[in-house]
Amino acid sequence: MRFYVIYSFDATKDYDISDFVPDDSWEQTEGDEQWEYDYLADESPNNAHIWRDGQHRKFVHENLSKEDFLDFIHKIGLRYEDIETLGSLTGIGWLPALSFHNTDDTMNMWDTEGFIDDMWDTEGFIDITAYVTPFPEPVRPMFSVQHRPNQIAIWPLTDDELLAYGRKRQMNDWNLIRSAFSGGS
Prior knowledge:
Layout: E1 2-11, E2 27-30, H1 39-43, H2 48-51, E3 55-65, H3 66-76, E4 78-81, E5 88-90, E6 93-95, E7 98-102, E8 110-111, E9 114-115, H4 117-123, E10 126-135, E11 143-148, E12 151-156, H5 159-181
Antiparallel strand pairs: 1-3, 1-10, 2-3, 4-7, 5-6, 7-10, 8-9, 11-12
């Protein structure tokens, strides 16, 4: 099994994000210019210094192994969310996706007056999400077999035959994944 992963996080400006930046095999697609929480400085004047000029990163990995994926979600602290998603718009098209979120629920804590001010002064804020699309390992046939009366012909597949087989196999695999995501309907 391989994994297509879109991973993003937002953190307040003073939060140390070094543990959340993945290795160089990931492609960074967004940066701080996509920080969306400046409006909270106006809504929470006591914490305006925290919400201004925060940090945002988005990364993509198009072909993460199962072992690397499991290491990634454990290192970052992500858990699966049983929610419906619209999928992921990726470099290879629109894909069904599973949602993962960080396990640190402190960012979701509210009181009747808004955010719990003392917590933000000491903890900061980090929100981590990932959209994950699993896909099967490709199986490449090496030979074509043709049965004829009293003989079997075996020959290596040409590049065109491999490509045609791969497209057919990929469509079958995606139909299985779509079926699983839609509950079999």
